[in-house]
Every structure is written in structure tokens, then in C-alpha cells.
Amino acid sequence: MKNQYYIAWWNVENLFDVFNSTDRPSWLQNQLRSELKDWNGQILNQKISNLASIISQMNNNTGPNILGLCEVENRVVLEKLKYALLPLGRNYDIVHHEMNDQRGIDVAFIYDKDLFHFQESFSHIVLKRSATRDLFQVNFGTPKGNDLILIGNHWPARSAGVLESEPYRIIAGETLSYWMERIFEIKGNNTAVLAMGDFNDDPFNRSVMEYALGTNSHKKVVYAQSPRLFNLMWPVLGHGMGTYYYNNFPYVFDQFLASKELIKSTGKIKIAKGNNPEYLVRVEMFPEMIGSGRYPSPISFGRPSRKSSFDPEGFSDHYPISVVIEE
Question: Over the range 197-230, which residues count as b (16 or more CB within 10 Å of their CB) and which as e?
Fold first, then answer.
């Protein structure tokens, strides 16, 4: 009988510690001073509660087996989120690495350690003129003794302009592809690797297709010698959906990219399929997260420092995504 595991990813939008946190370096406190104006314990707890209410509904109200996160500031807020998930009855643990991003936001994983055995983690630096988020690799052992490698990504944003900032995302894509080569050299070509994250580009953009080697060609991934990745999000594009909305246009910035072991028929651990040929990948749009306007954009929580966009009933400016794997 096959075991199935639900893996989710969510950009939780600026999950910062309180304004005057003693766990924040002084340089970062100065950097965030205006951004975190009026961001206090009460507001942080409200944000945590809102996020936990969504996470708890995932996987048929049992919570994810593994949850990848980005835009979290530190271990403190991760522990608060883990505590808010206690009613699920899962034995969650955290894998986190403090990164050098200029705004102090990191990539992390929360996982059920009754199911998955943590082996080791690596933080892969993206060489950019100014500090940005690393790629965060975590190696797990599965309940049946297989290796599962997850790589969390949060690529440079488009705030400087799409074309102006594209070279930085290309650097991130090339970095991901480089480490895929190293993983296959060390672990073998049949290693199950699932890259996930907020790529700040769509599946068809150059950074993803030409540099991270993400594609929608099943055969190209299975038979190619280079470490190509199968992008599981193309059907989402085909349905006109988005994980992030800007000017009411849907963008599929949040993605899962799978190594060939996860999609070939003989894989020991692979992406599960439903009753149709499509893999079990979803944009998790729970009703309370969806805005009331004409376009189904997610309800952002925002920050009190920007009163016009602050909504204490909100969640994040991204929808979570999920995938089911089986062994």
C-alpha cells in the first residue's frame, strides 16, 4: 500500500517579529524602523492566528506533512506559528537558517518529524551585488527509507522593474541548476528532488525555463542527461489561475519543480496523480482568503505602517500551493 504525503508552500508575506525584538540585529532594526511602525505583539499574534487557520485546513483539516515558507524573519515567529498549530496534534519541528537578506526575511520548513527524518540542510548563496535570500536545501528521509530533497526558493523581486531585475532571478535560476548538478553527482541521478518557492517569475520566463531548466516536457526531464526539472504548475497557467495578483493579472510565481525520479513511472517516490492525468497540485484558495472584487486576488494582511493596505482579517498576498507525493 502506498503512503501519501501532502507538501505545501506558502509565501506568508512579511511575517516579522515585533518592532523592538531583542532577536533582531541592530542594523536590521534600523533598516526596518519605518516599515515596522506599530507592528506589535497583538498584531503579530493576529497574523499568526490567521495563517494557522488556513494551514490547519490543508490536507483535509489534518495540516501539511511538510510546509515550506518564505518571508519569515526568524526562529521566534516560526516557533509561534508552530505553537498555533498544536491543535492539529502533529509533532512538528522546524528547519531554518538565518539568511543575509537586506530585509531579514528567510526561507524555512515546518515538518512532521513522526514521518520524516531530518538528515542535513544547506544554505546555497545566490551571488548578487546586494544580499538576497539563499536557496535553502533540506535533506529528509521518508518513512520507507527513501531520500527526499527539498529546495526552498525566494528569488529577487520585480520591484525595480521586470526587465531591470530579471538578471538577478537568472542568477538564482542558474544557482539552482548548479546545485542540482552537484546533488546528482553526490546522490545519483535518481534522487527525488522537489524545488519549491516564490520565484517572482512565471513558469514560462527565462529564469525558470532557460536557467533553472524547468520545463513542461515530461520526456525532456526523464530522458535528459542534464538535471532538468518538471514544472508542475503549467496546468494552473492553463486554467487562468494565479498564486499572486498584480493589477488584477494572475501570476504563477509560486511553483513546484520536480526531478525525474518524482515523475517517472518507476520512481520509488513520486508525485501522485488524481482521477485524471494531471498531478495532484493545487492552488489552495480557501473561501475566506479570496477578495470580494471581480478578480480572485488573495486578501493581504499587510502592515499597520501602510494603513491603506492593512487588513487584520487578511492572510497574505500569495495563495499557498500544495502537492501530494507517494511512495
Answer: bbbbbbbebebbbebbbbbbeeeebbeeeebbbb
Instruction: Check: pTM over 0.90? Answer yes or no.
Output: yes
Counted domains in the chain = 1
CA 117/CA 25 separation, integer angstroms = 32
Give the closest residue to 197 by CA, choosing from 280, 269, 138: 138
pLDDT tens sequence across 278-289:
899 999 999 999
Neighbours of 320 (CB within 10 A): 28
Q: What is the CATH number of the domain that holds 58?
A: 3.60.10.10
**221 membership: H or E segment, kind and range:** helix 218-223
Residue 193 near residue 185 (C-beta atoms within 8 A): no
Q: Which grid coordinates are listed for 65?
A: 506533512
Q: Tell me, what DSSP letter sits at residue 145?
A: S
Helix%, strand%, coil% for the chain, nearest 5: 30, 30, 45
Between CA 202 and CA 237 the distance in angstroms is 9
Q: 207 vs 18, 170, 212, CA distance in Å?
A: 35, 4, 6
Domain of residue 235, residue span = 4-326
Q: Rounded to the nearest 10 degrees, what angle do helices 75-84 and 41-55 cross at?
A: 50
Summarize pLDDT for 108-124 with one digit per residue, the tens: 999 999 999 999 999 88
CA-wise closest residue to 78 among 47, 124, 121, 117: 47
Residues 6+ apart with CB under 8 A from 149: 137, 138, 139, 140, 183, 187, 191, 192, 193, 194
